[in-house]
Amino acid sequence: MHQKDKSEDEENINNKVVVDGHVAPEEEESNLKGDYRNVAILLFLYILQGIPLGISSAVRILLQNRGVSYKEQAIFSFAAYPFTMKVLWCPIVDALYVKRFGRRKSWLVPVQVLIGSFMIILAQNVNEWLGDGEGNEPQIILLTVVFFILWFLTATQDIVVDGWCLTMLQRRNVGYAATTNSCGQTGGWFIGYVILLVFESPEFCNKYIFSEPRTEGLITLAGFLKFWGIIFLITTVFIAIFKKERSELDYELEEHPDYGVKKAYPILWEIVKLKPVLKLSLFLLTAKAGFAACDVVTSLKLIEYGMPKEKAALLAIPLVPIQLVLPFIISRYTAGPRPMSFYIKAFPYRLLMTIVIGLFVFFTPKMKTDDGFPFYFYLLLVCIYMIYQIPFRSMYICDMSFFAKISDPLIGGTYMTLMNTITNLGGSWIQTFFLWFVDVITWRRCIFDEDLLLSNSTTLPLDNKCSDKIEKEICAKSGGQCHTDIEGYYIEIGINVAYGVVWFFLIKNLILHLQSLPAKEWYVLSRKEEQREMVQVSKDK
Q: What domains are defined for the chain?
């Protein structure tokens, strides 16, 4: 009897949360009273996190504007890989810390100091590395290494802030963590990508802001990096001095168990070895190949055809409402026990829109006039992209819903992180490959007027393939122009669609099979816990 009372007392304690020295019931409805400041802090930290990611996306567009090849774009795409691999060091960030300073601040403070300092140093050299100035060429390898480090630091900051949400917010408000993450990171990316590209553009600023033409925009990339680097440092100082980290109570550590470095990696390995997870990994690593060229090459191809980079950035604005509203519209299909059934329905529509986008890009040069592109061009492009977002976002939401459905509840965070890592890797390696491959299957040559050929045939670079910026400049200086005989982008669209059709019919039954498996087939720790309980019951009998 005494043992039973003790157990009930422990359960009652675990169902309550201490707030300002008082015990509050877990069942309390969500109420931000007392947490407004914490939500604001988390939101700002996520905004800061999104800014380096947006800057990296902007640099990709700036490189395209400087005439780099798609092979070089493929190399630069490796910079984003740390976000697809953060599960590899996530257990270390969770397990190692200085208790006196705080579990999350032990990592947040040094990481954000490094990010801020790194951005300030990068600001001193970024223009030269991008190839600005007489005789300079874009230093792709160096830029890739630099932004890889920046993405690594930002991914680490993401791990820290995700963990801090669980203890900074009162228990009744932990549900706001996902909202602050989504809104903050999207807002930061918007600042680092759209705001930078639009106001860095001399053409846009001369047309809409400056009364007299200038050679530079309202802001510069170097100045933008330096400004936000300083903001990172100032924010970190304030967090270190003024923000106290609430100590994690015993029951919180039980609910969000810290398995430590030694236990975390074996658990990850146990998950990976599960047969359903291996089959799901095959699906996740190959699913996005049907849309690779459409997703990663299209915007670069439009810029190559003459669309201003600031207009490319502004296209992101009308897509935001769809990203916010669509999850609520399709939740009736994705929140149930079979979210992947809706994935299968959305897949053909996304494949169809891939063909539509490829055709639109094909006709893009024909729509260009001496004054640029007409209004109807941008209207059509926005409409097509908005329609494409529906199956695109739907498939993403279905993936997330399925991951939540199959994740072992005892290690839900680790399981979800692993699933996200695999699906992100499935997108990254495919996009990198098709960025590289588009140059391989594109045939260009430098052509000259007949009169020029007759007079200077021995000195002209007739074997010039216009394969990179240097060869294109040599061709232009020689009086020729680069002509594309075979455009690799359209071949890739064809390959992607053909692959997508075959993949769909081969993998569809596998997806339905995985969806129909009982939950215990996906579990590791929960299955062991269930087995221990069964053994205990048999002993009691």
A: 32-258 (1.20.1250.20), 273-441+487-541 (1.20.1250.20), 443-485 (no CATH)
Assign residue 404 a region (left: φ > 0; alpha: ψ between -120 and 50; beta: otherwise): alpha
Is residue 17 classed as helix, strand or coil in its secondary structure?
strand
Q: Which two tokens stand for residue 506?
A: 């081969």
**What's the CA gap between 259 and 417, in Å, rounded?**
15
Q: Distance (Å, rounded) from C-alpha 382 to C-alpha 390?
A: 13
Render the burial of 125-146: b for 16+ CB within 10 Å, e for the rest.
Answer: ebeebbbeeeeeebebeebbeb
For residue 247, name the pLDDT band (cuts at 50, 70, 90).
low
End-to-end CA distance of the chain: 20
DSSP 308-342: -HHHHHHTTGGGHHHHHHHHHHSHHHHSSS-HHHH
| Number of other CB atoms surrounding residue 485 within 10 Å | 9
Rounded to whole angstroms, the Cα distance separating 345 from 398 reads 11
pLDDT value at residue 376: 94
> CA-to-CA distance for 170 and 31, rounded, in angstroms?
9
In whole angstroms, give the CA distance from residue 343 to residue 510. 13
Per-residue model confidence (pLDDT) at position 63: 92
Radius of gyration (Cα) for the chain, nearest Å? 27
Separation CA 482–CA 477 (nearest Å): 11
For the ranges 6-10, 101-105, 154-158, 286-290, the lowest mean pLDDT is seen at 6-10
User: What is the DSSP-derived secondary structure letter of residue 256?
Assistant: S
